[in-house]
């Protein structure tokens, strides 16, 4: 008689190999969601819950801190705050200021950032590193700190710009500007001048990111294409429009959308340059929301409604950004 053979015990690897493929696939598919769960919880607590509170507040008439603390009732007004905002002619002025300011800043930021990126791509390694480090100082500077410096530069008594204009010959200054003494001149009193200075501050703070992003995109463009175009006698302008720009179009698209989002919600720079919320002709949506909510008498519900409108506008822009990213993934 032959001895009875007992099958060897199944190893864990063999058992895993014979596991139901559908069950294994479901278990693997759940893993990314489990890994994202902590981040989603943090986002929900720090972002979605306050946003939900703002949306809720926009449907009530809240005019006192006691109401926010729960000591008094919240009168329900439904869409009354939105009707008041959208029917106010001043809202159209604020919306126009916001759109024009964002469009001008996006255009200038993209042009300047692209030119600096092209310059960095042409420089040698050491010089490019030095210039990029200097440029990134503007990006690394906090918005509040940088704006305080720019406000000092345009100070009406001891600012650098005032000193430079006072250093001009009196005859030249009178013929060009109609005045020779610039001490005490209010650079921030005119809405046009205020927006020009605000644009200078925002572009100065934003263009380094565009420059470095364009530089990273240029490094991915094969140098043989540029060399072949130069051999054929193409000018630098034609090389950019026929070779560089088409290859970097996805990068430019994403940068334009991101710049639009950032420039629509500019607040810190405007608040510091204006010295608060007194200069209503220069209001944009972000500071308009703050002023309505916190300027006496406070109107928290009205300010919340403006914040929701701004958020909806940014969500539309963000939707274009997400769609662009998904389209790039499909094409790649």
Topology:
Elements (H helix, E strand, L loop, with lengths): L11 H6 L3 H37 L7 H5 L10 H7 L2 H34 L2 H16 L2 H11 L6 H7 L3 H8 L13 H29 L3 H9 L4 H29 L3 H7 L10 H10 L5 H32 L1
Helix pairs in contact: 2-15, 4-15, 5-6, 5-10, 5-12, 6-10, 7-13, 10-12, 10-13, 11-12, 12-15, 14-15
Q: Summary?
A:
This protein is mostly helical.
Report on the architecture of this protein:
There is one protein chain. The protein contains 15 helices and no strands. The protein has helices at residues 12-17, 21-57, 65-69, 80-86, 89-122, 125-140, 143-153, 160-166, 170-177, 191-219, 223-231, 236-264, 268-274, 285-294, 300-331. Helix 12 runs antiparallel to helix 15. The longest helix is centred in the N-terminal third of the chain and has 37 residues, at 21-57. The model has no long low-confidence stretch (mean pLDDT 84).
> What proportion strand?
under 5%
Structural class from helices and strands?
mainly alpha
Poorly predicted regions = none
Number of strands: 0
Distance between the termini: 67 Å
Basic shape: flat
What is the number of helical segments per DSSP (H or I, 4+ residues)? 15
Tell me the helix content: over 70%
The SSE string, one letter per element, is: HHHHHHHHHHHHHHH
CA radius of gyration is: 29 Å
Report the major sheet. Answer: none
Mean pLDDT: 84
Task: Write a concise keyword list for the protein shown above.
mainly alpha, 332 residues, flat, single chain, 15 helices, 74% helix
């Amino acid at each position: 008689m032959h001895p009875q053979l007992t099958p060897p015990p199944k190893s864990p690897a063999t058992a895993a190999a014979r596991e139901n493929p559908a069950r294994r696939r479901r278990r693997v598919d759940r893993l990314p969601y489990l890994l994202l769960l902590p981040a989603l919880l943090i986002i929900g607590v720090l972002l979605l819950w306050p946003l939900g509170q703002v949306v809720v507040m926009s449907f009530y008439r809240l005019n006192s801190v006691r109401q926010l603390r729960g000591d008094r009732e919240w009168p329900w007004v439904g869409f009354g705050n939105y009707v008041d905002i959208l029917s106010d002619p001043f809202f159209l002025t604020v919306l126009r200021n916001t759109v024009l300011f964002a469009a001008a800043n996006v255009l200038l930021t993209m042009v300047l950032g692209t030119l600096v990126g092209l310059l960095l791509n042409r420089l040698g390694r050491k010089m490019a590193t030095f210039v990029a480090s200097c440029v990134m100082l503007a990006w690394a500077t906090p918005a509040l700190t940088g704006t305080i410096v720019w406000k000092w530069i345009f100070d009406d008594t001891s600012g650098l710009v005032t000193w430079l204009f006072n250093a001009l010959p009196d005859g030249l200054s009178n013929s060009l500007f109609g005045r020779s003494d610039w001490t005490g001149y209010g650079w921030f009193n005119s809405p046009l001048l205020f927006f020009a200075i605000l644009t200078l501050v925002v572009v100065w703070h934003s263009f380094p990111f565009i420059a470095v992003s364009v530089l990273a995109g240029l490094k991915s463009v094969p140098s043989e294409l540029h060399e072949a175009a130069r051999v054929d006698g193409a000018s630098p302008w034609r090389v950019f429009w026929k070779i560089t720009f088409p290859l970097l179009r996805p990068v430019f698209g994403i940068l334009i959308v991101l710049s639009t989002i950032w420039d629509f919600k500019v607040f810190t720079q405007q608040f510091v340059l204006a010295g608060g919320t007194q200069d209503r002709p220069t209001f944009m949506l972000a500071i308009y929301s703050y002023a309505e909510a916190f300027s006496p008498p406070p109107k928290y519900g009205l300010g919340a409604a403006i914040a929701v409108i701004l958020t909806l506008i940014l969500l539309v822009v963000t939707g274009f950004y997400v769609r662009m990213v998904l389209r790039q993934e499909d094409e790649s």
